[in-house]
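ok here's Integral membrane protein, seq below lol
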Amino acid sequence: MYTQQRQSRFDWGQFISGVIFLLAGFFMMRHQGVALRSLVLVFGIGSIIQGIVWLASYSSFRDLFRESWVTLISGIVDLVVGLLFLFYGDFGALTIAILFSIWFLTDSVIGLVFSFHLRDISAPLFLLSLVLNIFSLIVALLMLMNPVVSAMTLVLLVAIYLIIYGVNNVIVSFAHRL
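and the structure came out like this:
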């Protein structure tokens, strides 16, 4: 008979990543303006890199399929967006806030739809999930209606997420000892 022995040990990877997420979250809460500008710069640089990759791969895609021109257009759009983010930080912050709001809205609607599977499992959990997803939906709509406020709170929301994720990783690192 095969017996699997579970190794109980402290998970340093989870612990270190948890501490890094916690530090990043607290830094973002304390320095929201710097954090927002940093997010805009990171997205801008990422967009420029993606644009360069698309443009560089255009010639190899040209031989593979007829619609390779899409990679050329995508590369140009990525470059333009990246440059706009780098040189017009307010535009970048507003764009990120709107995209973040749309993402938040999409996740809220999906969460709302999926919460109904809990109805047959547990009525209290279903109601809790339903209320939380409705609350998320309302917040997403408010963010979408006022993207300036969304931009100002974006950093705070990301910071809270990083803190929650960090706490979870630290807990998991200790749980692997059990």
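fwiw The two ends are 24 Å apart (CA to CA). kinda neat tbh
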